[in-house]
Every structure is written in structure tokens, then in C-alpha cells.
Amino acid sequence: MKRGAQPTPVALDEVDLTDLDRFRDNLGWGQFDTLRREDPVHWHPEPAPNGGFWALTRHADIRAASRDADAHRSLPTDDPRQTAVRALIAREFRPHRLRQNYGAFLRELTKNVVCAALTEPEFDFVQRISADFPIQVLSRLLDVPKEVTRQLVAWSNAAVGITEHLPCRSPTTQDVIAYGRALRNARRRGDGKDLVSILVNRVPADGVPLTEREFDSYFLRLLKAGNETTQHALSNSMLGLIEQPGQLRLLRDNPDLLRTGVEELLRWASPVYHVRRTAPRDVQVAGRLIRAGDEVVMWFASGNRDADVFTDPYRIDVTRPKVDHLAFGRGSPQVCLGKALARLEIRLMYEELLPRLDSVELASEVTRVRSNLVNGITTLLVKVRSR
Q1: Which of 225, 136, 214 shows the shortest CA–CA distance to 180?
Q2: What is the three-class DSSP state of 336?
Q3: What is the pLDDT of residues 47-68, one digit of tens each?
Q4: What angle do CA 342, 346, 347 make, to 5 degrees?
Q5: In this structure, how many other beta carbons lie within 10 angstroms of the beta carbon of residue 175?
Q6: Which residues form the signal peptide (predicted)?
Q7: Could you tell me the CATH superfamily of domain 12-386?
Q8: Which residues in 312-355 belong to E strands, given as ranges?
């Protein structure tokens, strides 16, 4: 489906949100449109051993469910322990802290990444920019040597779909956990300011030190929060700007629009398709009874295309006055930890990149991640002419 165009309609009885090939082929949007219109709180069967889930696809229902921490929980360690542990590093991701601690580094890194990519008239945007840039930032946040950066990229790419809700037996997860533990052991009782040192040497507000399991979980989460959201948001938004060149020119010629326009790019890119939770008690959603123990999937990407909230939702409009998007699970206790970092990285990248582009176009077919969890692009070959 070309960006800006309406998706192909899908009959309700043909909707299958577990068919990963449809998402690889960018065909999920027509299913979302059908569900929002005909069955916004939809019981969706699943192959064994899973028992099915409720699919929430309207913006209002997703927003309400995200805010209700008691009705929909994703972790057995939700409040208050989850809040206490999360607060250890959440402070480091606040906008003013990021600007204070990493602002100059981020600006210089952005310039270097852009300049290196634009030395070639044709390159893979994913490889040279949207994957490379955030992982270098993450390396700085974790204070790991440059030679480890490539390994972080490989782990992150292999980690699509991996949950931080342990145990997880995949080889990638175990490799990441082993590396995280080695960093933890090396920095224990040190005075480092990096995120690993903070997790190791500071005690949450409830006075209980992190368990090994909690450390492992948060190290996995940092790998995702510091890289995945930014990578997929950059790739998808760049594709959208290429296919809707009027918006690219508008941002290029009016860079101040990026301060608010980045929210529209995030809405449109929707880097995370959904979050899945379990209802610990009976709850009514839009007149449907969801019982305790039922699985509930909130399709953030669908909410970001809800025409009741966003006029002409399949079109990028960087002048849109109010962009109440759900790209980070807005209102949720499990809202994306790296949201402020992602916003800053995306804005800086386009501030540096767009003024240097005289033209940009696709050089080949786009290939996508085969996933209904992350809305990711694996290959985005572009031809550019620099100014």
C-alpha cells in the first residue's frame, strides 16, 4: 500500500492479525480499518497453545485501557515495585537530562552520520542511518566500547519479538543477558554515571535492591528502548516523506515545524503495532465484557489511523495542530521508556538531513520485518542528490 492512500478493504471474517505475512507485506492497515468500523472490541482466536485475545482498535478504547493500570496488566510486578524499579533510570531519559548530558554529543554524532551517508549517491537508509544512529547513542548511554556497537546492532535486529518478561530461552536473549551481567559485575560498587552503573549501584525508592532477574529484564528493555523505537520510526517516517514529497519539502524549507511535526511523524510511523496484557479482573470495554484472565491486545498503530481522531489519517500532515498519537503507549504505566530520547533523535536527524537533500527517491522495493509487534523496515534503498 502506497503511503497516503487508503488501504485495501478486508472483510471482517477474513481478518487475521496473527498472519505475519500480511504485516510483512504492509497489509495490516485494511484489517484495522475493518475492525474499527465493524467490531472495535473483537475476539480474535489464536492457534494452540494460545487461547485467543481481545483486539482493541479504536483510539478512545485503547487510550482508556492504557490508562487503567488495574484493569490491564502486562507484568506480575506492576505497581508499586515496577514503578520503583523503573524510576531508577526513567530520570535519565527525561528531556532536560538528555539535553544536559548528551545534547552536544547527539548533535555532533548526527552530523557525522549524515555526512558519512551522503558521501554515496545511493545507500540503504536503514543500515547507514536509522539502525546505525540510535545504536551509537545507546553505546554511549551504556558506556560500552565502540567495537561492541556492531554486536549491539546484531542483537537488536535478532531481538524482534523478544520480551523482557523472563524467562526467555532464545540464544539471542541469553547472549544479551550474559553481556549485561558481565557489565554489571565490572561496575559494581563503582561511581559510573552510565545506565548499567545506575541499575547496579542505586537502590529503588522501596529500599529493595534489584534482583538478578530484574536487572536482566531491564538490560533487555534498555537495548530495545534505546534503539528499536527510533530505528523503526526513522525508517517509516523517511519512507512516508519520500512518498509524500510535499511534506518533505515543507519540513526542509521550514525546519521550525520539526519541533511539533515530529509528533505527526511518530503517529504516522507507528513503530510498535501493539502491546499485549492480561485482565486481572472483569472489565467492560465499549459494551463488551472482558473477563479476568483474558488476553487484551491494544493495537496502537490502528488507533493512530482512527479517522474519528485524525482527519485523513493516511496522509502525513506536519502542520496538524494536535497530534494525540499512541506511538509510545500514551497514558500507559508501561509507556515506552525511550520516548523522549526517540523524539530528540528523530528531530535532530531530520534537522541535519533534510536541509542537505536536493532530492531523494526509492532505489528499489522496500522490505519489511515479518512481525505484528514491530512495524519495521529491513531495507530502504534510496537515491539522493545532496545540496
Answers
A1: 214
A2: coil
A3: 888 889 999 999 999 998 887 6
A4: 120
A5: 15
A6: none
A7: Cytochrome P450 (1.10.630.10)
A8: none
